[in-house]
Q: What sequence folds into this?
């Protein structure tokens, strides 16, 4: 199979017939063999009924229904697990992304060496309250991830070589940082494609202002996990050893100072009465604690943690 299109959807009943018909047209015009994986992330409207109806008319449609709303990342992850195509394309369900981009996305992966192609909504039809923070996020992500050629990490329209989606785990709010996950996993040919973007046709956005705080925390955690996830001791241990050494050096100084003043016969305060003594005590204790934290983190990181814990209600 050439292409799997993975569509996460949450309360998108109005868009689905139009979206699948449009994808269908593009695929047939290009003679692609394909499937459309519609992942219903616990919709409360008639979305799943519509998926079932569409499936009856079109055997290329695969439907997966979650028991409840687990979030876009979980929906993408389950779609990635199910995908059979050589190239996997993700697309939002709300008709903001254009299926007309599929042939070029496919070509970049199949013929031009890309592991991942990320869409860039250069002309974006969203309110300024959303586009401005997004610009800041993208700048921070570029800086922290060392992927300098992407303008729009969170664009829902992306294409992947099959190996990429089978080797990354998308959880929490990580759907915003899939290119970063891919890069950490070793897929370095990351390209960008300017894509059409439309205003939302039906329904409303599913993400509120909390998205920015969650997104920022995920950015920090992805940075630390990427850098130190496999060896947390390298992070905590280094800080711990530095702190411990600082305390040790101060203590040595205090002892030396005391010995010198005894030798010189001058009056001298007790070591424990010196302000520096408390600093050295704090530094030594903090150092030991950081070292132990690193040790515990190291133990935990050796046991893989299953972060995705979702239940599939039906799979058609
Ligand atoms: N979505 C989802 N689960 C959620 C929230 C959103 O599967 O909990 C889907 C949603 O149906 C859409 C895509 O993720 O297909 C992007 O969501 P939305 O259009 O609301 O985001 P925006 O375009 O405002 O960033
Ligand atoms: Mg949208």
A:
């Amino acid at each position: 199979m050439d292409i799997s299109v993975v569509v996460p959807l949450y309360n998108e009943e109005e868009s689905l017939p139009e979206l699948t018909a449009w994808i269908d047209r593009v695929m047939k015009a290009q003679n692609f063999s394909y499937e459309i994986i519609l992942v219903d992330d616990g919709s409360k409207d008639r979305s799943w009924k519509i998926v079932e109806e569409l499936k009856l008319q079109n055997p290329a449609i695969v439907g997966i229904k979650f028991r409840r709303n687990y979030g876009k990342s979980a929906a993408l992850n389950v779609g990635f697990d199910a995908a059979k195509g050589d190239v996997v394309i993700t697309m939002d369900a709300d008709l903001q992304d254009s299926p007309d981009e599929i042939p070029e996305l496919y070509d970049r992966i199949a013929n031009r060496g890309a592991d991942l192609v990320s869409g860039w909504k250069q002309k974006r039809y969203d309110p300024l309250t959303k586009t401005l923070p997004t610009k800041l996020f993208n700048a921070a992500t570029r800086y922290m991830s060392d992927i300098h050629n992407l303008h729009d990490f969170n664009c829902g329209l992306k294409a992947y070589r099959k190996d990429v989606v089978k080797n990354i785990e998308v959880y929490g709010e990580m759907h915003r940082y899939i290119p970063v996950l891919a890069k950490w996993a070793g897929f370095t040919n990351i390209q960008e494609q300017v894509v059409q973007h439309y205003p939302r046709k039906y329904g409303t956005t599913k993400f509120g202002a909390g998205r920015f705080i969650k997104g920022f925390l995920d950015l920090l955690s992805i940075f630390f996990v990427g850098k130190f996830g496999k060896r947390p001791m390298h992070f905590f241990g280094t800080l711990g050893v530095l702190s411990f050494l600082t305390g040790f050096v101060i203590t040595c100084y205090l002892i030396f100072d005391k010995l010198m003043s005894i030798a010189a016969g001058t009056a001298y305060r007790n070591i424990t009465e010196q302000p520096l003594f408390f600093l050295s005590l704090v530094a030594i204790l903090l150092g030991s604690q950081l070292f132990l934290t690193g040790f515990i983190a190291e133990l935990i990181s050796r046991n893989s943690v299953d972060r995705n814990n979702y239940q599939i209600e039906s799979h058609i």
About this structure: The mean pLDDT is 91. The chain is about 50% helix and 15% strand. The two ends are 18 Å apart (CA to CA). The CA atoms of residues 228 and 235 lie 6 Å apart.
